[in-house]
């Protein structure tokens, strides 16, 4: 089940998104960047839906830059009329999607699903890369060779 962290200072938005996603996603909400930063380590979300303007003075851009390298996928929600420079900055900082208010809830749900699949694929790829660089892969290859050798001996092939 996809884990989604919704970060928005507006209780109504947190409630609506939680209601729409509940049952198909594991949901946690935060009303500030500071609260979200504490929850990320505990909840380990796959996807974050982030309101660009938070009351603590931390912008969505600053929040994105604070996230660790191996982080969840982020969908940033901006106010209506966000200019292309802001959208580009958010994408360069690591947002997977940038959506402006008012947004279609079904489109946002689809973005969350796509972000979740992308996050899982990246996690699997990172796992493969770790295997390739580590001794675990060498041990696995050695075990496969030994198994093939033992099968060859058992079948009379040398």
Strand content: 15-25%
Average pLDDT: 84
- CATH C-level class: Alpha Beta
CATH homologous superfamily title: Response regulator
Describe the main β-sheet briefly.
5 strands, parallel
Derived from helix and strand composition plus strand pairing, the structural class reads alpha/beta
Specify the CATH architecture: 3-Layer(aba) Sandwich
Basic shape: elongated
User: Could you tell me the radius of gyration in angstroms?
Assistant: 21 Å
Structurally, the number of domains stands at 1
- Tell me the span between the first and last alpha carbons: 49 Å
Write the layout of secondary structure elements.
Blueprint (H helix, E strand, L loop, with lengths): L1 E6 L3 H11 L3 E6 L2 H11 L3 E5 L8 H7 L6 E6 L5 H9 L2 E6 L4 H29 L1 H20 L4
Parallel strand pairs: 1-2, 1-3, 3-4, 4-5
Short description:
The chain has 158 residues and is of the alpha/beta class.
Description:
- The chain is α/β, with parallel strands linked by helices and 158 residues long.
- The chain has a single domain (2-124), classed as 3-Layer(aba) Sandwich (Rossmann fold).
- The protein has 6 helices and 5 strands.
- It has helices at residues 11-21, 33-43, 60-66, 84-92, 105-133, 135-154, and strands at 2-7, 25-30, 47-51, 73-78, 95-100.
- Strands 2-1-3-4-5 form a 5-stranded parallel beta sheet, sandwiched between helices.
- Helix 1 links the parallel strand 1 and strand 2.
- The chain is elongated and about 70 Å long.
- The model has no long low-confidence stretch (mean pLDDT 84).
């Amino acid at each position: 089940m996809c884990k989604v962290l919704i970060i928005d200072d507006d209780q109504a938005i947190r409630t609506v998104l939680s209601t729409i996603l509940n049952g198909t996603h594991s949901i946690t909400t935060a009303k500030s960047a500071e609260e979200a930063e504490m929850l990320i380590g505990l909840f380990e979300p796959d996807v974050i839906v982030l309101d660009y303007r938070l009351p603590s003075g931390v912008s969505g851009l600053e929040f994105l830059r604070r996230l660790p390298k191996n982080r969840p996928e982020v969908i940033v929600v901006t106010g209506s009329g966000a200019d292309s420079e802001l959208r580009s900055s958010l994408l360069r900082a690591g947002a997977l999607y940038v959506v402006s208010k008012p947004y279609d809830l079904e489109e946002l749900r689809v973005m969350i699903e796509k972000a979740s699949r992308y996050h899982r694929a990246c996690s699997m790829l990172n796992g493969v890369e770790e295997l390739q660089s580590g001794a675990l892969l060498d041990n696995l290859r050695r075990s496969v060779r030994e198994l093939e050798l033992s099968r060859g001996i058992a079948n009379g092939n040398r």
